[in-house]
Amino acid sequence: MLQSGMDGEDAMAIGTVGVVGAGQMGNGIAHVMALAGYEVLLTDSNPEALAAASGTVARNLDRQLRKGAITDEAKAQALARIRTTPTLAELGPLDMVIEAATEREAVKAAIFEALVPHLAPHTILATNTSSISITRLASRTDRPEKFLGVHFMNPVPLMQLVELIRGIATDDETFEAAHAVVERLGKTAATAQDFPAFIVNRILMPMINEAVYALFEGVGTVESIDACMRLGANHPMGPLELADFIGLDTCLAIMNVLYDGFADTKYRPCPLLAKYVEAGWLGRKTRRGFYDYRGESPVPSR
Ligand code: NAD
């Protein structure tokens, strides 16, 4: 059983963190939290994802070790701070629970509804959603005032930003507690209001979607579109490469949230993006997306 970081004097101090979803984001969140000294309990409904999680975190910590970013001791301590469980209810007593499951509102709502009966009164709930209404997710819980969006960027260990999103009911104590966590991680928080896709994805996703339209309409090939934006706009990654990195299912889900949330056709998801998702070509995580990653080096798909 993880010890709560609560004490009488510092009621909102967070010591224990639960992470729901052990995919690329959940792994990364567990990794940075453990390195920063939090005790982490990670869960996933897919036993394979959960079984793979510790190995993924260990490999990523090794990479940081090789670069000299962390010490051997820090790596060992971080790994020792991460435990996994197949049982969501076990996260209930912790100081903060961060949901980082698949970007589908029904999935997230069901997780919060299942978690609520097991929560300690002080537990703060956070979602890593890229786009879904924080206020609406909070309304599925017993504590909208202790609920907020804590949106990490991918890859979590490398990216500096965390977007903090208040729902309509989020109280100041909760916001400050989450802000303190971001600071302890050595990251920078930016505050966004609770409108579809917040700030980063409100701006980034329509660009990626436009790149897929350019591909769909034959304006360019996968390689020429990515080269144009890398070399012409000085982006570190091309938009299609980046879409594969994020996950095409996540990109499509975010476009749908923008489209539905604003009822504006300028956010219409490109049918070609939907087609890749229908094929199960979700990008790097399935080794196939706008590029094929099954060989030695990525090969453009069209
Ligand atoms: P992913 O597909 O890599 O992982 C999602 C995980 O959630 C999977 O392991 C899946 O088994 C698990 N899951 C699904 N339903 C569950 C349930 N009911 N209970 C527990 N676990 C469940 O996706 P990801 O890229 O890690 O994205 C996770 C969240 O983070 C999404 O909300 C996404 O929008 C957000 N996000 C993603 C990125 C990115 O670049 N991929 C960046 C920031 C935020």
From TrEMBL:
Keyword Membrane in record: no
Family matches, as InterPro entries: 3-OHacyl-CoA_DH, 3-OHacyl-CoA_DH_CS, 3-OHacyl-CoA_DH_NAD-bd, 3HC_DH_C, 6-PGluconate_DH-like_C_sf, 6PGD_dom2, NAD(P)-bd_dom_sf
Site (Important for catalytic activity): H151
Residues at which NAD(+) binds: G21, A22, G23, Q24, M25, G26, D44, E103, K108, S130, N154, K285
N-terminal signal peptide: none
EC number(s) on file: 1.1.1.157
Gene Ontology terms describing biological process: fatty acid metabolic process
Residues annotated as domain 3-hydroxyacyl-CoA dehydrogenase C-terminal: 198-293
Domain 3-hydroxyacyl-CoA dehydrogenase NAD binding: 16-194
Keywords: NAD, Oxidoreductase
A GO MF term: NAD+ binding
Record's keyword annotation contains Transcription regulation: no
Pfam family name, one: 3HCDH
Similarity remark: Belongs to the 3-hydroxyacyl-CoA dehydrogenase family.
Protein name (database record): 3-hydroxybutyryl-CoA dehydrogenase
